[in-house]
Amino acid sequence: MKQKKLWGGRFSTSTNDLMETYSASIGFDWRLYKYDIAGSIAHARMLCSQKILSDDEFRDIEQGLIDIQEDIEQGRFEWNESYEDIHMNIEANLTQRIGDAGKKLHTGRSRNDQIATDMRLYLREEIDSLLILITNVQQELVKLAAQEADTIMPGYTHMQSAQPVTFGHHLLAWNEMVDRDYSRISECRKRVNSSPLGSAALAGTSYDIDRQMTADELGFTEVAKNSLDAVSDRDFILEFNAHASLLMIHLSRMSEELVLWTSDGFNFVDLGDGFCTGSSIMPQKKNPDVAELTRGKCGRVTGNLMSLLMLMKGQPLAYNRDNQEDKEPLFDTVDTLSICLQVFEAMVPGIKANRKKMREAANKGYSTATDLADYLVRKSVPFRDAHEVVGKVVGYAVEQEMQLENIALGKLRDFSTDIEQDVYEVLTLEGSVNARDHFGGTAPKQVVWAASQAAKILAARFVKAS
Ligand code: ARG
How many whole angstroms separate alpha carbon 105 and alpha carbon 164? Predict the structure, then answer.
């Protein structure tokens, strides 16, 4: 039913029906109810402590808002599009419940500082959940890395076999990518956690308010310093979505590798049946849909970032209605990130390495050629000359269709008389990975150590927070 607008005093005719639908945000911003109510209670308590509201008025407002929250959570609350948004749906309902005191709630505030407050409270809580989900994914990656510390696979550059690496090392590389996402998002939380409340419409308010009190009650660590900036700033949303995009890009890159590795050409890993689908026509198929969907969902999150960037471009100070358009992209980004992280957490432990295939592939690509060059360097051959010699050895091996380690010593010595019997120790895959035994290197020993360090850091994260 069409309702009289709470802001309708100076209007003589009612809103155009199309305009009503066009401008309403209640269809999506209802999700902010919890934060809107928390913000309103904090604001009302402050007005009471400043003697702007009486004790009785505050008590009625607080109880009314608690009851509204209960009704919303029980699915009993009636949303009304003609009240436009979450703020006015709640305020109108409050006034119906408690009478005139409800009309006093909006004293000294505006929907402009209210929505900025709601969005910050919402995002702060979502960031806290996402940080836990990111950590869970990291924990699974690190666990699997420890298990696969000495599994040898080809490492690639340009998608050409380059040098052997351990699968555990590769998984720890994934962990590093996600670890940076964790720190970026935690860092951004600090800037989310600032209170715009009290900025009112744009200029502040003529009432004697206490902004520190509302900020403290809502757990904000800072009071926004400029009212014009506070009602118009959406940097925190853009910044978060930029970090979210990067995280999705990382998940997408991992997904791409999983898609490759599960393909016939590679056959490096098997993903559990629970995370693949079959084909309705080809009975043999087991498709890595989770990975593909994640790769695809990266598009919507980065698309949301573009929407948000363009939303802010060209907006003059202070609040403009454009800002209502920040919600759907942000909600979608948060929801997408959350489901992708949950799915990854569940899928990673089921990644089963096909060690035989990985090893065969590592053997095929002359991936120990660099080791042969390094060997010659240790025998005092300058690196450039060693590189040249090994290039010739590889050319010979390609011609003969054989592995480096299967070339007889006599033949190898045709290329360089510095080559001796001990060369075979470096031509093996184990010799190659074990030799890279330094901080950040691929040697199994390093991977075991790095995985245990990472596990300790991850385990300490939320112990510290609580
Ligand atoms: N629904 C609006 C938004 O999301 C709330 C603030 C509206 N303020 C206004 N002056 N119309 O931004």
Answer: 67
